[in-house]
Batch of 2 targets.
Target 1
Amino acid sequence: MSDVVNDLSCNLLHKQFDDFVAVDKLSFEVESGSFFSILGPSGCGKTTLLRMLAGFEQASSGDIFIKNARVNDVAPNHRPLNMVFQHLALFPNMSVAENIAYGLKRRKVGRSEREQKIKRVLQRVGLDGSEHKGISQLSGGQKQRIAIARCLVLEPSVLLLDEPLGALDLKLREHMKVELKHLQQEFGTTFVYITHDQSEALVMSDKVAVMNHGRFEQVDTPQRLYANPHSSFVAKFVGNTNVVRGRIGDVGANSRAKVELGDNLSVPASNPQDLAVGSNVELFLRPEAIELTGDATASQISGVFKELLFDGANSTVIVQTSVGDLQVRLPQQKPFELAKGSVVYLSWSSEQCFCLAAENN
Amino acid sequence: MRRLGIGFYLLLCPFALWLLLLIILPHLNMLEVSLNLRSYTTPKSYTFQNYLNFFEQPLYWNTFVRTAWMSILATLLTLLIAFPMAYYIAKLAKGRSKTLLLMACILPFWLSELVRTYGWMIILRESGLLSGLLRYFGIIENNIEFLYNDASIMLGLVYTAMLFMIVPLVSALESLDDSHIEAGYDLGGSHWNVLREIVIPHAMPGIVSGCIIVFMLSLGNYLTPNLIGGKDSLWFTEQIFTQFITRFNWEQGSAFGILLLLLSSLIVYLGLLLSGQTLSKTMGK
Amino acid sequence: MIPSIPMSAPRQRLYKLYVLAFLIFLVLPLAVVVGFSFNDSLFPALPWQGFTLDWYFGTQSPKLGLFHDKILLESIGNSAFIALWVTVVALALALCNALLFVRYQFRGKDFLYVLMLLPLVIPGVILGVSILVSSSQFANYIEEAFAYDIEWLRPGATLIVLGQVAFITTICSLVLIARLRKFDPSLEEAALNLGASPWVAFLTVTVPFLRTTIVSAGIVSFLMSFENFNTTLMLVGSDAPLTIAMFQRLREGSTPVLNSVSVMLMLVSALLAVISVTFQKKEKA
């Protein structure tokens, strides 16, 4: 263990159900006061991990430390962390104030102090005056904030959030993303947030762990995760991207490579894993890195304009090429005036194109 | 599978005690007694004599068959009478009138079976309301006894069991989406056709559970045959009562009890088999 | 045959008529019982002899009213005592069963669930008889072996409580299981997460969720016990509960005091029904 006091760290944490490994010898640290997201598809083990942290599942082996104290054998009700549940789990038989008071009462906080704390936390989440409302009277966003207030009033070392935005409609979800990030900055509490929605993770987090098959594929800042994914899985899971299968034809200095895409076509790309000549790779090219041009000489590949998927600022053009259909971000500066079937040329800078070892499937 | 903690065993204990002491052991014990030879002098020995008696004495045998048939008939009658009412409550009545109708069906059954039977006795007996009214209107000259016949027994059985048919039917019919019925008509079905092909198949679990309960209640009924049917009602539960309480012949009574239990289990089993339902699905909802 | 599908007018009228006839069929015996409780005659029969309250308040035989009929009053007391115990025991058992079957996964669960449903398909008379047989045999054995008579194993209030608990527990369990299935377990986890011990979490979160259901299940148990006849008949000792006492009077051909008892029963049942319904409404709100 390092000397720094981390709010949360795990050492070789492992969870096995019969033959199935849900969490595979995981070690990680969460910096104090940061917003840490665990991003992964359903079934990747993130929920099991969270439930182990909260104490609702027992680890098969390995350790969990909160503020450098081992908590594996501490019952869930004695762990210094709190959790916002997927469906919030606000007590329907209690008012807003009673919900927030619940944890304080368990700690035997006196009545007047309790009331003060409830008032203060409600102010901070922007819902002052709603003490006596019933849970059913609240809107989705308000419920969200009460669920967070209920935990934060206890000043936990770590706040766990289990996909709390999943049940909200799209618009409110966009809004709550920003609000959650601000709440975290305002309270300064360490947030551990699990989600399968990469956009939630990218927008809110200081660091994101991408989880797959019980392991973290990469733990990084959102920017680096997007720009420099360490594995093919991460590259595909985070953000939208074109994937073309190929083989490394030649390698150069500074992790550069020529990738053969068949048909005597080979393109320069960065090779961060320093794969050897002949390795099967997947070539990744973000739609926004590709430029549509009329100039054949400056382009890497030519194709035929197939269709336009209009979605405002996120509009994409599908171009049929010899290596398959490629998505290209629609240039927004000038009007788009191509007819279907016309020939287009695609170009990109070789820094924005990278290859990674192909996934086995 | 997760390891089960102490909490599980603490909860299992009362369940096991209840099931063993109040249900399983008493019935096994009854089975054992039914196989004992009734004798004050010789030591305990086992015999099938109590069961042979049942087949040798036409009275016992006839009563048994009669009870079964009457119960089946009562069940079918109850279903026929209850179904339109349940359908009305579930599909046609709306809002307040629906609540009121359902309450009207349920409320009489919060009352003791004894009181309900008593009401029918007042109406049907020789000096009763029906006889009196008919005489008042000059339709008959002398009082007529409407009690103590098979029709009055049937009336009592149907009335007693009505609620237990209505409630499962209503809940089964309510779960049928109106749009299914609309689709049935839309695709050209007639009233009868929609009823047979859409409504009844959907209500099947409710029909089966209603029928099972009504059948059980009729078969095990003692009050109605005894009070409305009178001396000649020939109901099997009366035979059991007679053996146990009047004749104090527990061995014979136990044998009768086991036979009734077998009969009811068999018919319930056949009912479930024919309709493709299971006990947990129909009863344990 | 739903509101959105038109039905011909005569057919509609016929259906309405049927519903009306059905309602009259339901209410008739009860109305008759109520009516004759005010008839100033020694028999609950026509002709109408004028209005009286003697069958409630009369102090002299033969017009001994309900409130001065010591035997009936005592039997009401017996019934209430039995019903109270049955309610408490059955609810406690049912709560355990509900937690057991909803919260835990274990081998043989489906089988045990079917066993739990068993009392629903055992006729009440047989349930009573089997408990009578086995408890008496056990008591006899103890008496012979230790020369000690366990009085409560002989017919009487305790055996009646046991016999009724045997099947009322199943009904309560079904009600509580249905409700507990709707409980979101993450609520209890949230309570743990906020620092509550498992026991406190159960009391502060789960019990309030179940409270209304517990109350209505309790009311149902109380009424079922109070009105039970079949099982009770086989287990009754010297202290007869109300249904048995009324049954005995009925066979002797009694005065309209039975009508007034019935009316009181109706009032109490209606009151309990209203309480139960209000609770359920509150639950939905």
Target 2
Amino acid sequence: MTTTAIVFMVLAMVIVWGGLLASVAFLIHRPELKTWPEGAPAED
Amino acid sequence: MSTPDSPVAAVKAAGSPARQQWSGQFGFIISAIGSAVGLGNIWRFPGVAYENGGGAFLIPYLVALLTAGIPILFLDYAIGHRFRGGPPLALRRIKRWLESLGWFQVMICFFIGIYYAVILAWAASFFVFSFSQKWGDDTASFFLFDYLHLPDAPAGYSLQFVPGVLIPLVLIWVATIAVLVLGVAKGVERANVVFMPLLVVAFLILVIRAVTLPGAADGLTALFTPDFSKLGSADVWIAAYSQIFFSLSIAFGIMITYASYRRRKANQTTPGLVVAFANSSFEILAGIGVFSIIGFMAYQQGTTVDQLSGLKGVSLAFITFPKVVSEMPQSWLFGALFFASLLMAGFTSLISILQVILAGFQDKFGLSVRRSALWIGGVMGLVSTLLFATVQGLNVLDALDKWINEVGIVLSAIVMSVVVIWVSRKGGELSYHLSSLSTFKVKNLWLFLAGVLSPAMLTYMFIQVVISLIKQPYGGMPQWFLLIDGWGAIALAVVGALILTKLAWKRDPDNFEAWPVFQPSGK
């Protein structure tokens, strides 16, 4: 593979797979709100 | 990642019956990823990226993901979750007359469902053929003539059935109905929980083997070497927006429906980011796998990747890929892994398409899960068989797919975005809904992207496509056939939507209160 192709392949992997890991990490860290707006349904 | 939602399998909106519900956040996310990751991720993205600038395509692709894909995905989530229904019910609760747009989306899903199933039937057949390499040396001739029995005649309709397609097609419909009768949590979600990890494992094995083949590096060089001169072309940007748009399963009801099965307090946008990036992650993985294999093919033939043809779509999967497989060590394993991956990716998408139709009929006519799955699945299976298990199946599918995707879905997205955000002035309310329930907040930027940039880009795409379809008969097919199979399908979707809108509701759909309560003053 050429160096340019390697750089762009790594960039694609870092940005897209990194985006996935970052969003999963964010979700694990903050899965949902602690408090909800008024009138939250009780059955939830 | 998983936050256990309430075990209570229903949420009661004021005056509405219990609504089905995912077992939790994980169940929703894996099902939404299962819907988004489909045939297009495997057979469309790699070829589109290669043709449109290689490594440089990454730029418009990411811009399209962030400025149109994720914003429209969030719009779908907000509509389905806030207004607690499939597309007809949720859109009606925004504005009464918008119900017809919801039924238009249901009709689109009907058309996609009937032809998507037949591609899965082909994949199932080729999975079996992998073990003996039944396709021989001339894979194009095998697929088109020995397997599909395509006649040497212009495109048209036929009642001459092909048993080799008919039998797996019936099995696909039986399997689909079997999943749908079990409902959202026990059927759709469980199918995704089983098939998505299997898909990832099967595809990873395929990719790892592919990158170690001789010539793989040349294939990857062809895919990732950037051609920045292409970024000045509007066509490349349209290709990026199209890829993101069609790949994410947005704007034709699936994500509205899936979001409506989430509990009311569910986090909206953060899981959405996971779904969107997971979908793109699979596309990058597919690009690496597919172009490694294509590089190997070029190596075997003593040529270069740019001299090869059939690098995407049906040709890639059923003509090019079998040819490469035959030349590989452990060819049966490679073939089986590839077609099993297509089958699993496609199956989880097919059940999501069908679920939109079921939700529409359950909401409006009060049908039970079992009854709606059996009747709708049965009728669609019959239509699918009559149209696509025949010698003309490929032609009927080709034209229908072109019009439903590039005219129907794009039109649905433009109308939904403009009407919901601008005509009905619901943009602020939906933005408030997303932000007030989610850990990732969206505000005016989301409104701009979903309400201005995305519809503007999509309108440009739509005009370009319609002009090209009018100017030149698609695929060299007869005009009468395109009028029926292409434009006729769009017309039928509109008429069907209007008729279904006119029918009476079993229960009052408007006896409903959205939560959280929105006060335009900003409070």
